[in-house]
């Protein structure tokens, strides 16, 4: 028989390093090893009573014996070349009658495989070429990946831990014993890898490491795509297989020039939007049905989710991200989240995810590709530029430039908070709002930031008595809609609820039992519908708009024009007296019609709006501009 060229010696010190979980290269001793004309097979299985090596070809069994330490099994098979084998493991268990019985399993040996990590990708990491621009995808190497290795299904693990002398995969499949699945350190690197040939789908796992200073640590997989339900924090290996049904939606999205499309966003904190009939949080799929029905009825065309990457604290609203690649398990599985996005796409609703906590472009691209997101919110403009530079046109149909015009919205809010008799010239405030228009998709965001941290809701910010508050709020919402910028409204603010956002209390939908709240909801719905119907309000967000002149201290008029030259004239009266002979300077003869007024009775106003068309030969039309109102006119002939 031909002799092997290798030699192998079973070393007691190395065995003790395995049993003591101190080995950085367990493949050096575990698995099958050739030695001249023979082969040795070694395995560490601390819970096994008996172990056999089984020849996969002819099913010959070779009993192993314990050597040097409990649980360390070895066998010398004489006059054999290396061959494919299985491990037959016999464990002692107790049956239902309390009798001891044998439990037998037949498995592939994790230490019979060569490197499962792609060594070319390893060298990209070593050479500092592990970025998206270089074509590197971090999840193609790190974390846990399902892999077919030479016909064997299993999971490949890879982790990078500087200063680590031993790393192990621990989980439900090995009783969380760091000695059982010790990983192999890839030479000349601080990367550790291991292929485990088991079916561990939906199984909890973590990594356990031993550092050079003798300290140990156990942590969840930073690249995990799922986690166990809180308060646990173990990673959960999950196969992301889902049959998407949104091909037509995604194709249509690619045809759009988003800068010329209406973007009206409803911002949602999933946990406090609604609960089920038992007061429990909604699942991803239940939420999808609830939110789709509501935003469609209210004429929003996007939802924006506050961070749902896995997070730990309920009081952080999702901004303390602990697993940037995983949708939080609070509402279901990753495939449940996929089904939610798919359902919303079927209803024509886009999905944007707040990813402010994430600074990794690779992670952002992962979410866009894996979950078919229509946009991500970032507040770092340099990061946005880097993303666009690195990815080029790959995500041209995805909204990534959605920066909030926080300063402009804050100034607009401050103006409306001021008592009517003390409000200054509004043109200065509008100029400051539009001064922030940039190369990014600016969003006039009436966001959670404006109503959190004890600030109270928007209705609470308005001055005056109850009726005046709602009148001013209608002006405020109207201005935010008609001034340039994409639109965003935080949940609950459209119904005029009192009390700000704290992340704990669910929206009080019962306020819709009151007329004022129902009127406001109707107003916002019609305001949204007007925005979607009039291109003048969304096609020219990055172009200057024109002030049409001021006649009174507390009035303002401006125009918005669409790409075909159609003009909408917006006039607002911030005072408490009606302007009964307000001259609207259109600059063009014709017939004009009031197409929207916040003072309409159906919105809870006084009903003093303009009900008749206005005809002008010189371009000036005389209108009624009710107190505390905003109105829109358009040429109809």
Task: Work out the strand percent.
Answer: 25-35%
The quaternary structure here is: single chain
Main β-sheet, spatial strand arrangement: 22-21-18-17-25-24-23
Indicate the radius of gyration in whole angstroms.
33 Å
Residue share in helix:
10-25%
Low-confidence stretches: none
Number of helices: 13
- What is the typical, i.e. mean, pLDDT? 93
* Shape descriptor: elongated
Q: Give me the secondary-structure category.
A: alpha+beta
Distance between the termini: 101 Å
Largest sheet report: 7 strands, parallel
**Tally of DSSP β-strands:** 33
SSE diagram, text form:
Layout: H1 12-19, E1 31-35, E2 38-44, E3 50-55, E4 61-63, E5 65-66, E6 72-77, E7 85-94, E8 100-107, H2 119-126, E9 143-149, E10 152-160, E11 164-171, E12 184-185, E13 191-196, E14 203-211, E15 216-219, E16 235-237, H3 247-255, E17 264-268, H4 270-273, H5 284-298, E18 302-305, E19 309-311, E20 321-327, H6 334-346, E21 350-354, H7 361-371, E22 375-377, H8 381-391, E23 402-404, H9 406-417, H10 426-434, E24 441-446, H11 458-461, H12 466-482, E25 486-490, H13 515-533, E26 546-547, E27 555-561, E28 567-573, E29 579-585, E30 590-597, E31 614-616, E32 620-625, E33 629-635
Helix pairs in contact: 5-6, 9-10, 9-12, 12-13
């Amino acid at each position: 028989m031909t002799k092997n060229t290798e030699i192998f010696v079973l070393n007691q010190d190395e065995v003790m390093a395995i049993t003591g979980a101190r080995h950085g290269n367990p493949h050096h001793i575990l698995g099958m090893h050739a030695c001249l004309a023979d082969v040795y097979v070694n395995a560490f299985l601390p819970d096994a009573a008996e172990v056999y090596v089984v020849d996969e070809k002819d099913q010959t069994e070779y009993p192993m014996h314990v050597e040097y330490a409990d649980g360390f099994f070895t066998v010398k098979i004489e006059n054999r070349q290396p061959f494919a084998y299985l491990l037959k493991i016999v464990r002692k268990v107790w049956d239902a009658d309390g009798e001891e019985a044998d439990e037998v399993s037949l498995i592939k040996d994790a230490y019979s495989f060569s490197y499962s990590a792609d060594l070319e990708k390893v060298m990209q990491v070593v050479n500092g070429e592990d970025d998206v621009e270089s074509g590197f995808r971090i999840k193609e190497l790190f974390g846990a990946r399902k892999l077919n290795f030479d016909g064997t299904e299993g999971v490949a693990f890879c982790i990078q831990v500087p200063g680590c002398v031993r790393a192990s995969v621990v989980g439900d499949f090995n009783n969380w014993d760091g000695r059982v699945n010790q990983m192999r350190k890839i030479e000349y690197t601080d990367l550790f890898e291991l292929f485990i040939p088991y079916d561990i789908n939906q199984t909890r796992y973590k990594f356990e490491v031993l550092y050079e200073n003798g300290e140990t640590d156990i942590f969840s997989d930073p690249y995990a795509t799922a986690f166990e339900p809180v308060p646990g924090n173990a990673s959960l290996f999950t196969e992301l297989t889902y049959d998407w049904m949104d091909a037509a939606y995604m194709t249509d999205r690619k045809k759009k020039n988003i800068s010329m499309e209406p973007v009206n966003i409803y911002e949602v904190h999933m946990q406090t939007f609604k609960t089920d009939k038992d007061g429990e949080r909604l699942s991803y799929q239940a939420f999808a049905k609830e939110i789709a029905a509501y935003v469609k009825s209210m004429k929003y065309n996007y939802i924006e989710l506050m961070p749902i990457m896995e997070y730990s604290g309920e009081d952080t609203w999702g901004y303390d991200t602990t697993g940037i690649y995983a949708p939080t398990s609070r509402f279901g599985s990753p495939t449940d989240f996929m089904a939610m996005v798919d359902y919303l796409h079927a209803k024509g609703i886009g999905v944007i995810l707040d990813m402010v906590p994430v600074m990794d472009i690779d992670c952002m691209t992962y979410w866009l590709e894996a979950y078919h997101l229509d946009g991500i919110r970032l507040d770092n403009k340099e990061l946005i530029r880097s993303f666009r530079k690195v990815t080029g046109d790959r995500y041209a149909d995805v909204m990534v430039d959605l920066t909030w015009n926080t300063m402009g919205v804050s100034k607009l809010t401050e103006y409306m908070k001021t008592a009517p008799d003390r409000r200054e010239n509004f043109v200065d405030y509008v100029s400051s709002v539009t001064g922030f228009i940039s190369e990014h998709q600016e969003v006039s965001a009436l966001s959670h930031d404006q109503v959190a941290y004890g600030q109270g809701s928007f209705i609470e910010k308005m001055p005056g008595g109850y009726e005046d508050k709602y009148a001013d709020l209608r002006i405020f919402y109207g201005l935010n809609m008609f001034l340039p910028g994409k639109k965003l409204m935080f949940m609950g603010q459209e119904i005029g609820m009192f009390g700000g956002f704290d992340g704990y209390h669910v929206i009080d939908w019962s306020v819709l039992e009151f007329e004022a709240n129902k009127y406001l909801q109707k107003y916002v719905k019609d305001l949204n519908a007007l925005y979607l119907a009039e291109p003048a309000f969304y096609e020219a967000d990055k172009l200057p708009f024109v002030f049409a002149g001021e006649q009174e201290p507390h009035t303002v008029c401006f125009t918005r024009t669409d790409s075909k030259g159609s003009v909408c004239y917006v006039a607002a009266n911030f005072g408490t007296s009606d302007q009964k002979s307000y001259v609207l300077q259109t600059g063009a003869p014709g017939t004009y019609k009031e197409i929207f007024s916040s003072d309409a009775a159906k919105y809870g106003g006084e009903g003093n709006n303009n009900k008749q068309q206005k005809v002008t030969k010189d371009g000036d039309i005389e209108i009624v501009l009710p107190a505390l109102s905003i109105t829109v006119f358009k040429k109809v002939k």
